[in-house]
User: Which sequence fits this backbone?
């Protein structure tokens, strides 16, 4: 059973005004989804306007790079943020890198010695903690929308070779 709640998140004053023109962002929270990125695209088809975030307690078919599945049992952190952009396509890798870097810098504030494995993996003690997947829609050579999906192990069942 899928249960969705819409919430409004209040953003800190120093959150990028380039991305968000107000101090709130809508959030959609689900118990179970196939994928937060897939649900974000579905909400866009329903004319939900960016920016917004989709959060799931678990994913049944979370997405990874190159078509891989990201195991997403209850206890992890799984979300996607949807943004409108006007960015040349040659900067597509910057979206992932800046997203990964931002997460790393926040986790390091809590003295978690997180590292980046190029381009989209979060590594802790030599094991994969999480990853980022950016999906875009372009118009010609301009990226118009991005969905940045994040999966981080926390208190979930951990696949072999991974860490929480």
Assistant:
């Amino acid at each position: 059973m899928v249960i969705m709640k819409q919430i409004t998140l209040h953003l800190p004053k120093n959150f990028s005004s380039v991305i968000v023109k107000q101090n709130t962002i809508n959030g959609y929270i689900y118990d179970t989804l196939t994928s937060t990125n897939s649900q974000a695209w579905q909400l866009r088809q329903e004319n939900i306007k960016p920016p917004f975030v989709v959060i799931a307690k678990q994913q049944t078919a979370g997405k990874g790079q190159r078509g891989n599945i990201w195991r997403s049992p209850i206890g992890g952190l799984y979300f996607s943020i949807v943004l409108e952009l006007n960015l040349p396509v040659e900067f597509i890798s910057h979206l992932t890198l800046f997203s990964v870097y931002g997460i790393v810098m926040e986790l390091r504030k809590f003295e978690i010695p997180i590292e980046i494995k190029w381009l989209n993996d979060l590594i802790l003690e030599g094991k994969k903690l999480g990853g980022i997947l950016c999906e875009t829609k372009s118009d010609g050579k301009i990226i118009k929308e991005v969905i940045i999906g994040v999966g981080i192990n926390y208190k979930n069942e951990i696949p072999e070779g991974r860490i929480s």
